[in-house]
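Q: Got a minute? One more chain.
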Amino acid sequence: MRRSGKLRGPAALLLVLALTLSAALAAPTVYGYQEGLAKASENGLWGFADATGRVVIPIQYQSVLDFTLGTALVRSNNKMGLIRQDGLSLIPPEYDTLENLGYGLYLAQKGNQWGVVSMLPFPDEQGGTTQEFFPFVYDAVRTDKVDGLDALVLTAGGADTVVPLSTLKDQMVRRQVPSAQFPLIKGRLPSYTDVSPRDWFSVWVDLAYNLNLMQGVGDGRFAPHQTLTVAEALKLAAFLESQANGDTFHLQPVTGTPWYKSSVTYCEASGIISAGEFTDLERPVTRAEMAYIFSRTSLARNLPEINSLSRVKAAVPDVRTGDYAAAAIFGLYAKGILTGSDGDLTFRPKDSLTRAEAAAIVSRMARAEQRITLW
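A: Always. Here it is, folded:
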């Protein structure tokens, strides 16, 4: 009788077990999740995996730190850098030391010299751009308490230059650092019982909370799947407008009856909406209405396009020129704010909007490093 050559019985079982063990040993080890991504290690190198365990940022770094507010410190070739959640480099890996100062700034060391770098480039004095906020001319840079105030202390030749941390935002605004009006506050992170570190929206909830744009709904919950109302969309637009323009409306407590009256008045006075444009403010806002409202803030109007507008118009499958808010929708795609609800850039203009989705949108509007290049 001619044999087929196939393994059967115990031999086949042993082969299956061996192959399974080999695959398990070859798979990277995943360590805990934060903001939807986990550190992943293999053969002494590190990258990041998504909630399914799939490696989405290649395992190529000597070491990595957890993602916090949408960015992570990484070490490559014995140098430190900063990446965002799609692996894009924000600060190139060329520093011996890189430490988060807050505000989107980092204490940095090159050899024996120290300075402070920004995660976002800003205009230099030669018509170009730079990321050096304080140049690399110092013997040491640290944070400390000086006369009871939190301060940045820059030391050169034995002399200290003291910069109160409370002045950094205004300095960044004057030097035209992008998103300076929306500084990242070091250590300010929420803890909501209904937001898991594995959730896709965890990073956006962290950012929206850190930037003081969105809060929880009470009882330790964020309610990420709860529908956003027209009134809540107008409040968000008012807060974005106020903070971008540097006035105090976003700092004032919400008072009055109904609670959203002051936000509606602010939006009307700012030209975001016309008086009486929306009559039922407590109904769910549609995604198209949200795009219309947010696009009319001065913040959105002043954002640069980073995606081809003509290509956006051709690519978004369920919005056509002439549709309600079509120009607003296309514009927000072009500016890297909207990315669609699937890989085909589908927008779903007539659907409602969740608080998690709103958190993603306002975070991208506020923080330039989070805007998405589509192609």
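A: Residues 202-370 form one domain.
Q: Perfect, thanks.
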